[in-house]
């Protein structure tokens, strides 16, 4: 076991930074910890922002992971409302003009909402607690909303708007929602969720100009107006403050499989801004997933402490939209085939209960489920093992027989 550093500076007071600190303390780390966070809020959970916080079923405080008293219990110094503006070795420069020096630094700065070129300031985004609270407040008087982007954020915002009785128009540049993750067939099923909820979904829509916070001009010359315009087209890693320090890969800060930042001795990185080396694929990967962030925080903390980390977890992300929980387990973007395992959604039937397996070279790489959380997660072991198509289909058949559920309607396998 190596001697741990005397002082650890964690930059980023979100999920990744907090979980890193919690793991350090639970692993017996006795030294000093300083947490630097750009937002004044204590660490909070982001997934509820576009779900329960936005739709009003939760008050914002319920999304807080640890309040100030709970942070104090971790025996650290919290510098919230303070932005990091530079990194010199293991010294972090702060926006107030001072700096904090550690023996090790963990970067967990996450990502910021991506903005479109020329995006006006009154066009809203949804990434932070303040974003969610401000948008929820506007829901009280708005009657219509335009959303650019049909990804998870766009879908969740559209569903929240519809539940408030608002009209919602969603503009998506790709042929179907989440095309890169779901593929064309399952993406078509996802599109049905929008339209069946009364959302005006326009795929293949190209934005010519965002005129202001109420008006969007499309490439075909048409002009759309609403009380609110929201852009939800992904996120950009918060790395500009590093001023080029370290190496970049897959859009993030390149790290080895333990989270050590390439070219930055004494620095680790976790979460949305980090691109960890994946020995299985021989490439760096950046995963904007809650579970991946927690996994990386655990592994980085163990590396700092010189202890054995637990096995890495599989990628997993979920979304609550249109009354269904949609889950993505494993990797779907590398698949060349998608096959229905349960339900009839791909054949035009009800979306709820549909489970789809994704295969690459005949091996299961991922599973997507619509309103079938228990069934979908039963394939976790098969995804981890890279089970062959015959084994997966045989187990799906056994589960149909055991549950008495109807078998999925046959759908011709389509290449991804």
Q: Averaging pLDDT over every residue, what do you get?
A: 94
> What is Rg?
22 Å
CATH H-level superfamily of the largest domain? FAD/NAD(P)-binding domain
Note poorly predicted spans: 410-416
Q: Which strand-content bin applies to the residues? A: 25-35%
What sort of overall outline do the alpha carbons produce when their principal axes are compared?
A: globular
Strand order of the largest sheet: 3-2-1-7-19
CATH topology (fold) name of the largest domain: FAD/NAD(P)-binding domain
Can you describe this structure in just a few lines?
With 416 residues, the chain is an alpha/beta fold.
Give a verbal description of the structure:
This protein is an alpha/beta fold and 416 residues long. It folds into 3 domains: 7-112 and 235-305, FAD/NAD(P)-binding domain; 115-231, 3-Layer(bba) Sandwich (FAD/NAD(P)-binding domain); 323-403, FAD/NAD-linked reductase, C-terminal dimerisation domain (Enolase-like, domain 1, 2-Layer Sandwich), CATH 3.30.390.30. Helices cover 25% and strands 29% of the residues. It contains 10 helices and 26 strands. The protein has helices at 15-26, 52-55, 68-73, 129-139, 152-163, 179-196, 290-305, 373-377, 380-385, 389-403, and strands spanning 7-11, 32-37, 77-80, 84-88, 91-94, 99-101, 104-107, 111-113, 144-148, 167-172, 200-203, 207-212, 215-218, 223-225, 228-231, 235-237, 248-249, 252-255, 267-269, 274-278, 283-285, 316-321, 324-330, 337-342, 354-360, 363-370. A 5-stranded parallel β-sheet has the order 3-2-1-7-19, covered by helices on one side. Strands 22-23-26-25-24 form a 5-stranded antiparallel β-sheet, sandwiched between helices. A 4-stranded parallel β-sheet has the order 11-10-9-15, with helices on one face. Strand 25 (354-360) and strand 26 (363-370) form a beta hairpin. Helix 1 (15-26) packs parallel to helix 7 (290-305). The relative contact order is 0.12. Mean pLDDT is 94; it is low at 410-416.
